[in-house]
Design brief:
alpha/beta; Leucine-rich repeat, LRR (right-handed beta-alpha superhelix); seven-stranded mixed beta sheet; 2 helices; 11 strands; about 20% strand; binds 2-acetamido-2-deoxy-beta-D-glucopyranose
């Protein structure tokens, strides 16, 4: 596998170098940056079905995800933030509903700890086509809420990490994802 991807790896190396050389982003920067949820259904598109609220925030020139979800009662939630420029992906807002989230094609480099801590019933997450490296992937990024002195699992079944910059995976990454069934790592330069 690694031979096949050596050229690609070399190109990636150059891109990573260029990225590092042209930014001074700090991964521990102030994590209080969220897109205001006020009038979010004007900025994005909300489609409110009987059992499902669809939020389309794709291609809205957003730099952050939201501070709160639009009101979705007990309905499932499907939210897309595809094709925005979100350098740091912050914790998603709180919801106890089943959810599908897409943050693909956003140029994401940094992940906040406990991304899904406040929405542990998330089932499907698409983080493909970003700039996520192995340094950003640890079990604490996927931890659930802390109750009774331990982290609850998150319900994620389908995780798409295709087309990022992931070269290996720590086994502990999946510690808080006991239901995970589908993991897509296509288009990464994995070395075993
Ligand atoms: C983050 O930035 C906001 C606004 O610039 C400020 O009010 C807040 O205190 C900062 N939080 C931290 C933890 O530095
Ligand atoms: C979401 O909104 C974007 C931008 O307006 C549009 O291009 C896209 O087709 C929409 N997606 C869906 C599933 O409606
Ligand atoms: C969606 O519909 C429910 C009622 O079924 C309502 O309570 C809620 O406010 C609506 N949400 C939005 C964002 O329109
Ligand atoms: C989710 O459920 C917990 C426990 O029942 C509750 O404390 C919390 O307020 C709920 N969160 C939301 C956003 O509804």
């Amino acid at each position: 596998m690694d031979r096949q991807y050596r050229n690609f790896f070399a190109i990636c190396g150059v891109l990573i170098f260029v990225a590092i050389a042209t930014t001074d982003e700090n991964p521990d920067k102030n994590f209080s940056n969220f897109e205001s949820s006020v009038d979010i259904c004007r900025k994005c598109e909300c489609t409110n079905y009987t059992d499902l609220l669809i939020l389309n925030c794709s291609k809205r020139d957003l730099h952050n995800t939201l501070s709160n979800w639009p009101n979705h009662k007990n309905k499932a939630l499907r939210a897309s933030f595809s094709y925005n420029i979100i350098t740091t992906l912050e914790q998603f807002p709180a919801s106890n509903c089943s959810a599908m989230l897409s943050v693909d094609h956003c140029g994401i480099k940094f992940l906040a700890p406990g991304l899904f801590e406040n929405m542990k019933n998330v089932k499907y997450v698409d983080m493909s086509h970003n700039l996520i490296t192995i340094e950003q992937l640890s079990s604490e990024k996927f931890k659930g809420p802390y109750t009774n002195s331990e982290f609850e699992p998150i319900e994620i079944i389908h995780l798409n990490l295709a087309y990022n910059q992931i070269h290996s995976l720590p086994k502990s990454l999946f510690e808080h994802m006991p239901r995970l069934k589908h993991l897509n790592l296509e288009g990464n330069t994995l070395k075993f």
